[in-house]
Amino acid sequence: MKKLSDVCQISAFTDKPFNGNPAGVVYADGLLPEEMQLIAREFNVSETAFISKSREADFNLKWFSPSVEIKLCGHATIASVHFLRQQEIIKDNSIVTFSTLSGILKCKTSNGVHSLILPVPELSEFNGNKDEIIRALSVEKLIETGKFPFILDDGGYLYIHVSSIDELMNYKPDFKSILEITSARNGYDAITLFTTETIEKGNHAHLRFFAPYYGINEDPVTGSANGPLLLVLRKLGLIDENTEGKVFTFEQGDAVGRKGRIIVTYSPEKNELMISGRAFTIFKGDLTF
């Protein structure tokens, strides 16, 4: 039998309980991939992060959904930094690096705000069967066909502009249909619907993220989608292309009762894309298996 201590569930992109995106966080060496998958299935949140010792960086970091290993997860990385800071394994105002399936990721923590520098994705206009996607999503009334192209990033996220916040909030997804079109492997495996209308004045965009292919019907607050969204807005001309020194706040999770807010910055000079947010530990305990 194995016993893991100080296993946590931490909500990222919030400083309040029962909001943001919950992630399991486990700090242990020697776990087998199949053990990580079973633990992630037991947590049954969108992703569980597994931190261990590393020779290439400060730590190794892996992410598992309840069904598969994930290549990149923003909120579980923010939760991992929060865990390491809370356990006093790292200090405040410090930089920490993780060796991951997406390469070496650099994170920062300062005064309770945790940041992750994301790999900058390549964006392209999606030239696949848009009509098929529109029918499967049942979004005929939500989007203005022809006004904005669908945008695909090289991580397989498809971004679709929605005309209003009310329509986005009231949208009822058919997860079976979304699973069918994303499982077809036509270049995308997750879908982001977004609008530049927001709930709170001063914020810049609101989004919803659907990834049933990965066992996540609707993710509450998705770091790996919010970061590239800033580049999507630039590409579509929805914000000024010059984002140097500017800070953007994106909204997500309100439609599923888990309000989250993500700070996103992009420096064209450094070609650096960063997401930031706070986190809140919901519970901590031991895991025996």
What is shown here, in short?
The chain is α+β, with helices and mostly antiparallel strands. It has six helices and 18 strands.
Question: Could you characterize the architecture of this molecule?
Answer:
- The chain contains six helices and 18 strands.
- The model has no long low-confidence stretch (mean pLDDT 96).
- The chain folds into two domains: 3-119 and 277-288, Diaminopimelate Epimerase, Chain A, domain 1 (Roll); 123-270, Diaminopimelate Epimerase, Chain A, domain 1 (Roll), CATH 3.10.310.10.
- The relative contact order is 0.19.
- The chain is globular and about 55 Å long.
- It has helices at 33-43, 74-86, 130-137, 165-170, 175-183, 223-235, and strands spanning 3-12, 21-27, 47-53, 59-64, 69-70, 94-100, 103-110, 113-118, 123-125, 151-153, 157-161, 190-195, 205-211, 216-219, 248-252, 260-267, 272-277, 279-288.
- The protein is 21% helix and 38% strand.
- The chain is an alpha+beta fold.
- The chain has an 18-stranded mixed β-sheet that branches.
